[in-house]
Design the sequence.
């Protein structure tokens, strides 16, 4: 089992709900279609300073593959995944972390 943790933010606070809708209705289904091993996906809103953009963590769990394979498959699929101007860039751009369980 591999885990992908993505930290991401909407481009601005005013577009937060529209960004969440896009993420849930478009991005997650596209990623799951591109990498069928991805099963459970959970989203979490992180606590943070009120003067910063909202930050979210999305956790993707993939069954039957390891983290390097998940990273490779995501890299191959990336050009086919929809992009949006609703996603923050710069210091608030998405940060991806791939992990394997210790056991």
Sequence:
């Amino acid at each position: 089992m591999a885990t992908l943790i993505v930290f991401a933010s909407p481009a601005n606070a005013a577009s937060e709900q529209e960004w969440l809708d896009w993420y849930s209705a478009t991005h997650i289904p596209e990623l799951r279609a591109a990498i069928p091993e991805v099963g459970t996906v959970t989203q979490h809103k992180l606590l943070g300073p009120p003067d910063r953009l909202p930050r979210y963590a999305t956790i993707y769990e993939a069954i039957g593959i390891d983290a390097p394979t998940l990273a490779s498959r995501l890299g191959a699929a990336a050009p086919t995944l929809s992009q949006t101007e609703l996603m923050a860039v710069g210091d608030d751009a998405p940060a991806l972390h791939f992990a394997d369980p210790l056991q």
Observations:
- The chain is about 30% helix and 25% strand.
- The two ends are 10 Å apart (CA to CA).
- The first helix runs from residue 16 to 34.
